[in-house]
Amino acid sequence: MADTTPKPSQSNQPTSNLLNNKYELGRLIGSGSFARVYHAKNLLTGETVAMKVVSKDKIIKAGMMDQVKREISIMKKVHHPNIVKLHEVMATKSKIYFAMEYLRGGELFEKVSQGRLKEDSARNFFKQLVCAVDFCHSRGVYHRDLKLENLLLDENGNLKVTDFGLSAFSENLKQDGLLHTACGTPAYVAPEVIGKRGYDGAKADLWSCGVILFVLLSGYLPFQSKNIISMYKKIYRADFKFPPWFSPETQMIVNGLLDPNPITRISASELMDTSWFKFNKTIPQNVKPMSESDGIESEEEKEKETLNAFHIISLSEGFDLSPLFGERKEEEMRFATAAAASRVIERMEEVGKAAEFSVRKSESKVRLVGNESGRKGKLAIEAETFAVTAALTVVEVKKGGGDTFEYNQFCSKELRPALTDIVWTADKSLTT
Amino acid sequence: MRSFLGCFRLKKAVHKPGSGDHAILASETTFTVNEVEALHDLYNQLSSSIIDDGLIHKEEFQLALFDNGSKQSLLADRLFDLFDLKQNGVIEFGEFVRSLSIFHPNAPEAEKVAFVFRLYDLRCTGYIERDELKELVLALLNELDLTLSNDAVEAIVDKTIMEADLKGDGRIDPEEWKELVARHPSILKNMTVPYLTEITLAFPSFVLNTGVQESEL
């Protein structure tokens, strides 16, 4: 590799099929004006990724370099089961490589192009979409380019939103179908976005969700026109017609989302509160709702480990490098107590029951699981106790599932207050 | 005043290793050249937090680890000493990268085992002595504001030495340490920092000014 003279090639074709001795590039799976996407394999893990290759020249010419950097940081923030994950970024003097989660289920677009979906199936996808979108909004991230082409499926038929945050150069990788919007057409764009006034990113994304729901149920776009001006007009007036098979409930939902006035347009929380949204029919095939696949697997009770002096030492904050990376380990809380393990477990159980969580426990472990699905599935809290001596118990509390923000909130509002009197402090020192 | 400092900072030449240095570091660690470049971004932040001289001083290291920079921690001091490979009182960029490499999830287990052994071998005798272990336990209890009776501390230390010291000489040698860690892998938990796999996302500035040629990736 070192002896090949690099050619001043302007093409997007990588000069070698091995990147960083880590990724082996395979076949081209999509291309557009900004990017090419390759099938690639991580040689260290065997994992398949989608490698998006972008020419820096083009990004710089379009003046989008800062936006790209900002959006990489955004992608790092939005880890969610319904959002395509960005694993890593690589760069050379001329190109940027995005190693992204590769999805085997193809595009939702393909499914719809074979025929419109039944209401239950459409609702299932739509719920996952709204979950992902609402999660991002809770992190201050807006997609701004939601469309059917950005919705992919994994091998289990779960929906994953792609190009979240990378919308700066999102584009159609294929231009073959009726529903594939040509670059720049506003089929999914909210009226206030066309107006180019300042707008609420959350409400604009919800409009696009409304268009997507319409497309899933009908098989075609709600706003279509031969020329762009008349299309704008239709969007401004929310001028569309329901086909006869839309149920009254779905019509109500779509009308709520495709409200040209962003202020009266339904919000994500209002939407998730509707009985239509909450309706839960057991979905056939292997399509699992996200909440159940999100980390609430039952695990075998591990063999109990006794703590020695080295475990105690490693509790030191000075031996935790994560703050160097701007990360505080909020997800794990460790404390020492003079209380017996059974008392800690008992206390946790009370907290769980008070919050109407389901409780599973053993002698040394307790697991609280929320009954309602949060932003990232059901919230789960696990606590494990380790007896160091008869008079010293170390307790480790960590998130077993769900959203980190919700977990942190639960810890500070419910858990910590309930545990304060047993957490060890200097004034309650031990006298053995 | 602030703007003056700002100007001053702009003019100040920050030591910037050439891409050659980065390539060497990458070849000798678990990081790729891009990751070394991303780490350089982090290093620049850490090394200019108190004294903007392109070197990480002990105070800057503590400031990065604790919200409260004045907090004392024996293990943070020990980490600094081990990072400072040249023992000249500052962590240079190369030392920073080489040391962090051991904390990477893909770093060889043996390196992590050896690193923690050196961390706890406070007086560099080649053994973790009983009194070193006790000192470490006391330091932690102090850090957590816990007071345990001397008997209780002795009991914890004794129990651990008894378990680890297979040869019965009252101290832990590297071999015994290896076996202890094999039985209690969670002792090494702090040696793996998952965030290290995401540094290219956390510090993406390198995508603009990377020195990597297309032929080198």
Features of the shown structure:
heterodimer, A: 432 residues, alpha+beta, Phosphorylase Kinase, domain 1, Transferase(Phosphotransferase), domain 1, TATA-Binding Protein, 6-stranded antiparallel sheet, 5-stranded antiparallel sheet, 14 helices, 13 strands, B: 217 residues, Recoverin, domain 1, two-stranded antiparallel ribbon, 56% helix, globular
Number of domains of chain A: 3
The run of helices and strands of chain A is EEEEHHEEHHEEHHHHHHHHEHEEEEH
Q: Let me know the number of strands of chain B.
A: 4
Spatial order of the strands in the main sheet of chain A? 1-2-3-4-6-5
Number of strands of chain A: 13
The CATH topology label of chain B is Recoverin, domain 1
- Order of strands, main sheet of chain B, comes to 1-2
Biggest sheet descriptor of chain A:
6 strands, antiparallel
The CATH topology of the largest domain in chain A turns out to be Transferase(Phosphotransferase), domain 1
Q: What structural class do you assign from the helix and strand content of chain A?
A: alpha+beta
Query: What is the CATH homology-level superfamily of the largest domain in chain A?
Result: Transferase(Phosphotransferase) domain 1
Shape of chain B: globular
- Report the total helices of chain B: 12
Helix count, DSSP H or I runs of 4 or more residues of chain A: 14
**Which architecture of the largest domain in chain A per CATH?**
Orthogonal Bundle
- Report how far apart the termini of chain B are: 44 Å
Strand percent estimate of chain A: 15-25%
Percent of residues in β-strands of chain B:
under 5%
Helix percentage of chain A: 25-40%
Protein name (chain B): Calcineurin B-like protein
Organism (chain B): Camellia sinensis (Tea plant)
Keywords (chain B): Calcium, Membrane, Metal-binding, Repeat
Subunit structure (chain B): Homodimer. Interacts with CIPK.
